[in-house]
Design goal:
By secondary structure, the protein is α/β, with parallel strands linked by helices. Helix content is 26%, strand content 20%. Bound molecules: S-adenosylmethionine (SAM).
């Protein structure tokens, strides 16, 4: 054999319905050892310069809590190297038309690895690809197929692999898990100078191959009996002793509590960090719900393998994200704490926004007049519309607007698109002192804005904005149907949110402090509120999961009872409008295949978190 290409059954994916089948072993370790044994006998049949392209997909392991990525292909590849194979390259087959997914707490899988194995350093692959501009990324769409129950790889994949080797006429190509015969189809159509051997267990699939490749009984189909074989069943993870020595720890380094992003150029620095994951030191520096992204531009199968073992060491690897850097890739691992209780930070709402903002959008092209606004903070929900733009940010996004509410009131509103900087503006001090580092000058939302003449303001805005659509010269009376309103109905709106991520524990302590100072029992306080507040007041005073924060309206009632600090009032009651994109918009969770220019995504994902603003009264 000169050239072998195959895609064996993946572990735990489907039932091929026969005895001795591969893929339905109890553990993936047994599956790996089975394949190592089979591939080892394949190695004997490979010519000295021959290569073996192995395509194999990964799987998330079933687990109560957060399910880890299995790293099955990489653990197999690593152990095949231990078994004497040379791993020349890991090609990433990226599938631009991969299956969509409703997953919202990790990147969506969109690629599979193809390992390039050989017996010798010098082989038909390295002959051709010693130059630097060889790309180890193949972008190939999945191909629709009429064959049911077979996981078919695209003809273009086989073709692309045949193009990156140097094959003499009369070379022999093998596919030991032929399935629907894609390998044969490509060879027969485009590489007529080669011989091909297909192995397939299932007679149904042999029929498919016959038909698909127009064989018409012209070829020999040899029948072999299943020969039982022995394979090792060691526990993979016990085989390695990793990082015996614990090195310098992170002590002086500042790490963002929500997690961090560290991508190194060299393996050594990466391993230094990995050791700290192994020894759990990292856990002293980050929150339990933190999300870490770590990667190395310089890597090999061993690095991936050693990283994958974190899954058994108190961590869960949720993704191996492929970063495309010109024509090469490197991995970034998304790692979270392994516990059943706490969700980890994966602020996909931020990405949604980001995809609409910095990545794609020129805000100057959006006419916001008529955009819907929902106030859902207060108990009574209210809807309104933006009727006037008072001030824009440099990038054309809104800063201050006037909203007309359905109850015919008007408010001036501050608009934000990320809470990131805003929350860093708050500092907690002793004795319930709270400091706004930079006083934001907008008017408090509870103060009603003076009524405006709607017709005038709308026309005014359309005339003065960069809006260039068909209503450009119109003084529209029916402003509900303005272009902004329409686009708002279709895809976007604003919602009223608290400006600050309010720390509920802090507020509960504060109200309790005020209550006790005034000599009121919890019951006393409850009776000062309407009947339907029976439980609500209690929730304000609790500091566990049942705790809640008073709405701005409730807070103003509290100011009538207690003498409350203005800064804390601002902290609780200041609100801002935040843009929202409705579900059926084009936004998709990003794939686990990213360009090196989009690394900013990681930053967005771990932004915005209330826990960051924990307070300490000691
Ligand atoms: C993932 S499919 C290969 C699909 C193929 N690349 C294509 O494009 O159609 C794996 C194939 O291996 C075959 N197979 C052969 N021996 C097997 C075994 N011992 N256990 C499981 N599957 C086996 C299955 O019947 C199945 O057709």
């Amino acid at each position: 054999m000169d050239f072998t290409v195959t895609s064996p059954p993946y572990w735990g994916q489907r039932d091929y319905g026969f005895k001795g089948q591969i893929g339905n072993e109890k553990t993936y370790q047994a599956y790996i050892y089975k394949l190592i044994t089979i591939f080892s006998s394949l190695k004997e049949k490979l010519t000295p310069e021959g290569v073996f392209f192995l395509n194999i997909g990964d799987k998330y392991l079933a687990k109560y809590g957060k399910s880890p990525l299995g790293f099955i292909p990489y653990q197999l590849a690593y152990l095949m190297v231990k078994d004497g194979w040379i791993l020349n390259e890991i090609i990433i087959w990226s599938k631009p038309n991969h299956m969509p997914s409703s997953i919202k707490n990790r990147f969506v899988n969109s690629y599979e690895p193809v390992f390039v194995f050989s017996k010798n350093e010098h082989n038909i692959f390295t002959k051709k690809n010693t130059h630097n501009n060889f790309s180890n990324i193949l972008k190939i769409n999945l191909q629709p197929t009429p064959y049911k129950h077979v996981a078919v790889y695209p003809e273009k994949l086989v073709d692309s692999l045949l193009r990156i080797v140097v094959l003499k006429d009369n070379s022999t190509i093998l596919d030991p898990f032929a399935g629907s015969g894609t390998t044969l189809k490509v060879t027969k159509d485009y590489y007529k100078a080669f011989n091909a051997i297909m192995i397939e267990n299932h007679t149904d699939y042999i029929d498919i191959i016959n038909e698909r490749c127009d064989l018409n009984g012209q070829v020999d189909i040899l029948k072999y009996n299943f020969i039982p074989y022995k394979y090792q069943t060691n526990n993979l993870n016990e085989q390695l002793t990793l990082f015996e020595e614990e090195k310098q720890l992170l002590t002086n380094k500042v790490i963002d509590k929500n997690g961090f992003i560290k991508i190194y150029n060299d393996k050594e620095s990466y391993y230094n960090l990995l050791e700290q994951f192994y020894s759990d030191t990292i856990k002293n520096h980050i929150n339990i719900n933190a999300t870490c992204f770590i990667g190395s531009k310089d890597f090999d199968i061993e690095l991936i393998y050693k990283t994958s073992l974190l899954n058994n060491k108190g961590w869960v690897i949720r993704n191996m994200i492929i970063i495309e850097d010109i024509n090469r890739w490197f991995p970034v691992f998304m790692i979270v704490d392994d516990n059943k209780k706490n969700k980890y930070i994966f602020n996909y709402e931020n990405l949604k926004l980001k995809s609409k903002t910095e990545y794609q959008r020129d805000w100057n092209l959006t006419n916001f007049i008529g955009y819907r606004v929902f106030n859902s903070i207060d108990k009574i929900k209210k809807e309104g519309k933006i009727i006037e733009i008072l001030q824009k940010k440099e990038n054309g996004f809104l800063e201050y607007v006037i909203v007309e509410w359905e109850d015919n009131t008007y408010t001036k509103e501050f608009v934000i698109y990320s809470k990131k900087e805003i929350n860093q503006n708050i500092i907690f001090e002793k004795n319930f002192n709270i400091k706004e580092l930079k006083s934001l000058t907008f008017i408090n939302n509870h103060i009603q804005y003076k009524k405006r003449q709607q017709k005038e303001t709308i026309a005014h805005d359309i005339l003065n904005s960069n809006y260039n659509g068909k209503f450009k010269n119109e003084k529209r009376k029916n402003w509900g149907a303005s272009p902004g309103a329409r686009s708002s109905v279709e895809q976007e709106y604003f919602s009223t949110q608290r400006l600050y991520d309010v720390n509920q524990n802090f507020i509960a302590d504060y109200i309790n402090f005020k209550r006790i100072q005034k000599g009121l029992s919890k019951q006393d306080l409850t009776t000062l509120f309407p009947k339907n507040y029976k439980h609500t007041v209690g929730h304000w005073l609790r500091k566990d999961f049942g705790g809640s924060i008073p709405t701005p309206t409730d807070w103003f009632k509290l100011t009538e009872i207690f003498d409350l600090d203005t800064k804390i009032t601002n902290y609780v009651c200041k609100t801002a409008l935040k843009i929202q994109t409705v579900k059926n918009s084009e936004f998709k969770i990003p794939d686990d295949f990213l360009n090196v220019n989009s690394l900013g995504l990681f930053d967005e994902l771990i932004n915005d978190n209330a826990d960051k603003h924990s307070y300490n009264l000691q």
